[in-house]
Specification:
Layout: H1 3-6, H2 12-21, E1 40-42, E2 51-64, H3 67-74, H4 79-95, H5 99-102, E3 111-124, E4 130-132, H6 134-143, H7 149-163, E5 166-181, E6 192-195, E7 214-221, E8 224-230, E9 236-242, H8 254-263, E10 269-278, H9 285-302, E11 309-314, E12 320-327, E13 335-341, E14 353-357, E15 371-376, E16 386-395, E17 413-419, E18 430-435, E19 459-464, E20 470-478, E21 483-484, E22 494-495, E23 504-510, E24 523-529
Antiparallel strand pairs: 1-4, 2-3, 2-6, 3-5, 5-9, 5-10, 7-8, 8-9, 11-14, 11-24, 12-13, 13-17, 13-23, 14-15, 15-18, 16-17, 17-23, 18-19, 19-24, 20-23, 21-22
Helix pairs in contact: 4-9, 6-7, 7-9
Pfam families: MACPF_1
Protein name: MACPF-like domain-containing protein
Organism: Jimgerdemannia flammicorona
Length: about 525
């Protein structure tokens, strides 16, 4: 341990002051921001938590995918901490109805942050030193008094926004040197760490070359400095220095900067968070179990179970996938018409579908990239199963039609409904459900966390399992002139005039040849009946 750290004034008065000024009793929201209200208080009033002198220099480069990631970094989270936070936040976001929590800075441009920290002291916020506030516990109990689990979870979500959702039991405080840029500087070490001292640092801070310029925005002010530098290619880097007599010299002399941090404890901030956990882990076992039961119920309500009955709403036509008991004019027996249309009263089961997972699937929920069969809803009086079928190399029925502006549509292949025994189903009746990247669809991916489960109202693509690039789609071709047979053996055909002007063609698009630029292949899954 270096001499400058041993001399740090970790007195009880100093520790209590830092506890208050740094708001160490506040958790973080799912957005990465500091909570609005404290969730814990000192177990013994005016007795601060334990501090250990620390001598720890660390540097790493972090790729910020979103404003959420940036907020967590600004609040002292390393890349390792973000990896621990991601699954905790992902569960909260997946169960939440709040778009405000799910979508953080959707127009955010990816940036790179090079973060150097020097930890001068470690703070322990374990149950030995802190406890949940009476206000926090009271609000949790009040939320759990709501009638339904949906209402309970809605109230809990509001509390997470007030009291936070991510709690750190161990905090490291000291100084930070942070450089951000919208480009990666080649040749920089990442995630380098020196324990027990800063000598021999593996990272050289971003600094101007021989022909570069450096602009000082804010010179040392309350222990902080902000600089703008331009490298040899005139690319801009923004640097913030906190602690250690913050000034541009810290860019060139990291060792001296670290020594100065230990000598200026009045400027210490939170530079690292460890022992990450969800905020409800602060509660006693009984109350925590009640909260977890509500969260799990919310997840079950949001996720789609296998064999659930759903409606499929097309993003392009803004109409629902349906079928008719009229036969297509090809020679295949029992090939029924499919289309998108408003929902009319009439034959039940024409606009509702079952998502049937593979028999080998052990998961109760539909997951992204699962292989599914899309089957007409099985009503009590139905004995025959009808499956959505894609016919590659069979042109779609309305292939010679034109849009209202006179242009011809992209060529596509036929989609129909086939009567099949489950043992006769092939890859032409199987569909891979794929996630659509959409800012309104909840972006937990910004923390490097893939969404696993399909949720009610998610946007998806449905790819025919028999091919890599053929997707279920619908476009603005009306079906009022579409020929059909009333019976499979009919010689003469009729026109689908009834409701035909309000119906739109469903077909397969080969996206390798024809990009769906207007979201013709995007579908919203709407749960109709949970089973």
């Amino acid at each position: 341990m270096s001499s400058q750290t041993r001399g740090a004034p970790l007195t009880e008065e100093f520790r209590l002051q830092k506890y208050k000024t740094l708001k160490l009793n506040y958790a973080m929201k799912a957005s990465g921001e500091q909570a609005n209200e404290p969730c814990v208080e000192l177990r013994v009033p005016n007795t601060p938590p334990a501090y250990d002198p620390t001598d720890q220099y660390q540097t790493e480069e972090i790729e910020c995918q979103s404003g959420r990631t940036e907020k967590f970094i600004q609040n002292g989270c390393s890349s390792m901490a973000i990896k621990l936070i991601a699954p905790i936040v992902a569960v909260n976001l997946e169960a939440s109805d709040s778009n405000a929590q799910r979508n953080i800075n959707t127009n955010f441009q990816k940036i790179y942050r090079q973060v150097q920290t020097y930890g001068a002291a470690t703070v322990f916020l374990t149950s030995e030193y802190v406890k949940p506030t009476d206000n926090f516990i009271g609000k949790i109990k009040e939320a759990l008094k709501n009638g339904s689990n949906v209402d309970k979870h809605r109230e809990l979500t509001r509390l997470w926004d007030r009291f936070g959702y991510v709690w750190s039991q161990v905090l490291i405080i000291g100084g930070k040197l942070e450089t951000s840029a919208n480009h990666r500087k080649e040749g920089h070490a990442t995630d380098s760490r020196v324990e027990g001292g800063f000598e021999g640092s593996l990272l050289t801070p971003v600094e101007p070359g021989a022909n570069a310029r450096i602009g000082l925005s804010i010179s040392e002010q309350n222990g902080r400095a902000s600089l703008t530098t331009f490298d040899d290619c005139q690319k801009m880097n923004n640097t913030c220095i906190i602690g250690g007599g913050a000034n541009p010299d810290a860019l060139r002399d990291t060792a001296t900067w670290c020594k100065n941090i230990a000598k200026t404890p009045e400027h210490w901030i939170i530079v690292k968070r460890e022992s990450i956990k969800p905020i409800y882990d602060l509660l006693d076992s009984t109350l925590r179990s009640e909260v977890l039961a509500v969260i799990n119920s919310a997840l079950d309500h949001k996720r789609i179970r296998g064999n659930s009955v759903v409606q499929l709403w097309n993003r392009k036509t803004q109409l629902f996938l349906q079928w008719s008991d009229k036969y297509l004019t090809n020679k295949t027996v029992h090939a029924f018409m499919t289309y998108t249309s408003p929902i009319f009263s009439g034959e039940p089961g024409t606009h509702t579908w079952e998502l049937v997972p593979e028999a080998s699937s052990q998961n109760p929920y539909i997951r992204y990239n699962d292989v599914l069969r899309i089957r007409q809803e099985q009503l009590p009086n139905y004995r025959i199963s009808r499956y959505l079928h894609g016919s590659i190399d069979t042109p779609s029925p309305m292939r010679k039609s034109k849009y209202e502006n006179g242009t011809r549509p992209k060529p596509g292949d036929e989609v129909s409904l086939r009567e099949l025994d489950s043992r006769s189903v092939t890859e032409t009746e199987e569909w891979v459900i794929e996630r659509v990247e959409d800012s309104q669809n909840g972006n937990i991916e910004d923390l490097g966390q893939d969404r696993l489960y399909v949720r009610d109202r998610d946007l998806v693509r449905l790819r025919l399992a028999a091919a890599q690039t053929y997707y279920l789609a619908s476009h603005d071709i009306k079906l009022d002139k579409m020929p059909y047979r009333k019976q499979t053996g009919d010689f003469l055909t009729k026109k689908f005039t009834k409701n035909g002007k309000r119906a739109r063609e469903v077909l397969l698009f080969n996206t390798e040849k024809n990009e769906c630029s207007e979201q013709e292949d995007v579908w919203e899954v709407r749960v109709f009946d949970r089973r």
